[in-house]
Amino acid sequence: MKIDEIVKKHNQEEHGRIQFSGAILFGTESEIKFEQSYGFANRSDKIKNTTNTRFGIASGCKIFTAIAICQLVDKGLLEFSTLLSDLGMNINKFDPRITVHHLLTHTSGIPDYFDEEFMTDFESLWETVPMYSITSPKCFLPMFQDRPMKFDPGTQFSYNNAGFIVLGLIVEKLTGLSFNDYVQEHIFQVCGMNDSGYFRMDQLPERTAIGYVGNDDHWKTNIYSLPIVGGPDGGAYTTVHDFVKFWDALMGYRLLSKQLTEKMLHPHIKDSEFIHYGYGVWIEIRNNEIFKYFVMGSDPGVVMQSSYYPESKAEVHVLANVDEGAGLIASKIDEVIIAKQKNE
């Protein structure tokens, strides 16, 4: 597979706008077949990205939140049918019929602090709420808890960031740990994801890419565009190599039991002709078979897609520190994989 040619063609087509800047890895559990980095992790100091660079992954880390909840179910501390009202969460105006399952599948109907059906400018949120004040899940509550419900629980699919904030609050309530500490201990450490974490944007560790907004000629960093530290709905940092460790641990049942893993990866909700949603993970189904599981994320200065193909046990991870490119490149790689499967 000539992934490098896909990237070069993408960059030629995007000339004058924004070149792909990030890292790509393609391989299987036993063999890395391609890895390459592009662009700069720090444009001012001309520090290049590498395949060991840590990138923000935005909503790509919703899968970590889903796994945390499934681990609590595995331990008997929670059920997917548990009502939000029975957990004593004390969140105003929310329908008492909302379950954990509804939150995990974006079918709860709760209001969102950033509703992607109607809003496109994530940066505008911080004009009234300082981004440096958002340091934990509870900091988001004033941004959505007093708004009216969007629809009755279970009646629609509507991608919802606030629902995953609430899931993070459930993790904190039932474990006594901060959400970020829980993920670090029970997911990242278990997988051996030693380069991953929820880092403060004003305290980034070595080998971490700065996110860039704008085009190649007129750019700025995303330091004022996102919450100062990530949480249950997005904002972790990781590498393409750590994503390999993550999928291998998940598919090897080291994070969850086989039963709970299958429950999480089940296509619970249909979003479009080919795309379904499990718990914190997108699922593409072709010819009545699962083509791939994937997570994706997009924030100012961040775009990514990480995919696992169950038939071949192959993985493709595309992480970037710019606004565009990862999804388009990932879709071109998908086309190559689909063509290859047809010819076999």
Can you summarize this structure?
The chain has 344 residues and is an alpha+beta fold. It is built from eight helices and 14 strands.
What do you see in this structure?
It is built from eight helices and 14 strands. By secondary structure, it is an alpha+beta fold. It has helices at 3-13, 62-74, 100-104, 161-175, 179-191, 240-251, 258-264, 326-343; strands spanning 22-28, 32-38, 40-42, 47-48, 55-56, 212-214, 219-221, 237-238, 269-270, 275-277, 282-286, 289-299, 302-309, 314-320. The strands form four sheets. The chain has an eight-stranded antiparallel β-sheet with strand order 2-1-14-13-12-11-10-9, with helices on both faces.
CA radius of gyration is 19 Å
Which class best fits the helix and strand makeup? alpha+beta
Total helical segments: 8
* Major sheet strand order: 2-1-14-13-12-11-10-9
Helix content: 25-40%
The tally of beta strands, per DSSP, is 14
Q: Give the mean pLDDT.
A: 93
Report the portion of residues in β strands. 15-25%
Ends distance: 15 Å
Q: Regions with pLDDT < 50 over 5+ consecutive residues?
A: none
Query: What characteristic shape results from the CA principal axes?
Result: globular
Largest sheet: 8 strands, antiparallel
H and E string = HEEEEEHHHHEEEHHEEEEEEH
Provide the descriptors you would attach to this structure in a database record.
single chain; 8-stranded antiparallel β-sheet; 8 helices; about 350 residues; alpha+beta
How are the SSEs placed, and which strands pair?
Blueprint: H1 3-13, E1 22-28, E2 32-38, E3 40-42, E4 47-48, E5 55-56, H2 62-74, H3 100-104, H4 161-175, H5 179-191, E6 212-214, E7 219-221, E8 237-238, H6 240-251, H7 258-264, E9 269-270, E10 275-277, E11 282-286, E12 289-299, E13 302-309, E14 314-320, H8 326-343
Antiparallel strand pairs: 1-2, 1-14, 3-4, 5-8, 6-7, 9-10, 10-11, 11-12, 12-13, 13-14
Helix pairs in contact: 1-8, 2-4, 2-5, 5-6
